[in-house]
Amino acid sequence: MKTEIIAVGTELLLGQTVNTNATFLSQELAQIGYEVYYQSVVGDNESRISELLEIAVDRSELVILCGGLGPTEDDLTKQAVANYIGTKLRTDDDALEKLTRRIQSAGRVLTENNIKQAQYIEGGEVIKNDRGLAIGSLTKYKNVYFLLLPGPPSELKPMVKTHVIPKLIELLPNQNLLTSKVLRFYGLGESGIADKLNDLIVAQTNPTIALYAKENEVTLRLTAKGILEKENLALIQPLEQEIIARLKEYFYGYGEENSLSQELFKLIPKESIIRIEDYFTEGRLGLSWQKVITSQASGVKLFNQNSNDELVLVDKSGDIVPKPYTTTTIKKIYSDDLSAPSGDIHITVLGDQYLEKSGQFYEAEVWAIISLNQEIFIKKSIFANNYDSVKNQSTLDITAFLLSVLKEQEQKANKHSQNA
């Protein structure tokens, strides 16, 4: 079904508010088979809203308007749509009762402008607002549906997920369901992944393949269309397996909201201790991990020591180790760092940074040294970009390195238990 999203609000045009609702709606609609063809933003002006409606009804089957359902004079969306289709506004009794209770409990008097929040377009269907007071509505005019939603994302998102999506699924003529799986990759860019999957991308029908390049990683969405979710997942499975087989060394997990750090801490036992000596990322590595530790309440203890000063390496004889470093040299120096209890992790990050003549372009040689379970793991990486990008990319790279080390350790442990 051809869909159009109109965000209403002068604050959006002035750049005072970011239009996150359009992004959220587009993602949710795509999941159930609605195709968003157009998006627009209009200020709190009834004549301009009407102009957009005139355009929208000629090209779309579902027109979604976000915002402008509140109690103030510039909340004009409901009235603009009602005037456009030649009908009136009605008051929903349940919404009015909720509104009255809320206002009286706050010691205020119910005014006429407050009642606007309980009104909907005559002939339409009321959509409950579980988080706020301004109700939504769904109205059909000729061959076009008008869906009115509140502007605050804290109200719009739960309304869409709980009440709107089920209604929209019922409107679809063929009742097709879209099912998606999101695969996440690190260490290979969008063009590299596209090249390795070129034959699959060219031949795609159902399911489809969509690549999205994000900062320092790539996500890949597989989407199948069918009647039942079970059938869709069966369509996705062989394609998913083939893709992972080709990109195994870069694949790290699933999900829209996932991250390397989240996957990492799934493998770190609770009550483990991590010690970081960071001489390059300026504490970004530890900070990114601490956020996940806090959000997951994992019980992992993180000790993060960071310094902008360069660490001077010395060997067992007390002599300064000359640069450039080598893996062999670093392994010798850190071979004594094997006394930590089993399961505890000690990480040292070293880096040399060189500024190019442009004054903005940096090249950095970064070493990550991991001590875990009586073993030393070392990785050298070269990064070239602006200052912040080099720091952020090295943070992700070290996270990915530790994740790969832990996966290898887990595989060894599983193999050992099977052979025992």
Structural features, described:
The protein is of the alpha/beta class. It folds into three domains: 2-171, 3-Layer(aba) Sandwich (Molybdenum Cofactor Biosythetic Enzyme, Chain A), CATH 3.40.980; 177-254, Alpha-Beta Plaits (2-Layer Sandwich); 260-419, Maf protein, CATH 3.90.950. It has helices at residues 10-13, 20-31, 46-56, 77-85, 93-105, 112-115, 153-171, 190-196, 198-202, 229-246, 260-266, 284-296, 327-333, 387-419; strands spanning 2-8, 35-42, 62-66, 89-91, 119-121, 125-127, 136-141, 144-149, 177-186, 208-214, 217-226, 251-254, 273-278, 301-306, 345-355, 362-372, 375-385. The strands form four sheets. A six-stranded mixed beta sheet has the order 2-1-3-8-7-6, with helices on both faces. A hairpin with a 2-residue loop joins strand 7 and strand 8. Helix 3 packs across helix 4. The mean pLDDT is 89.
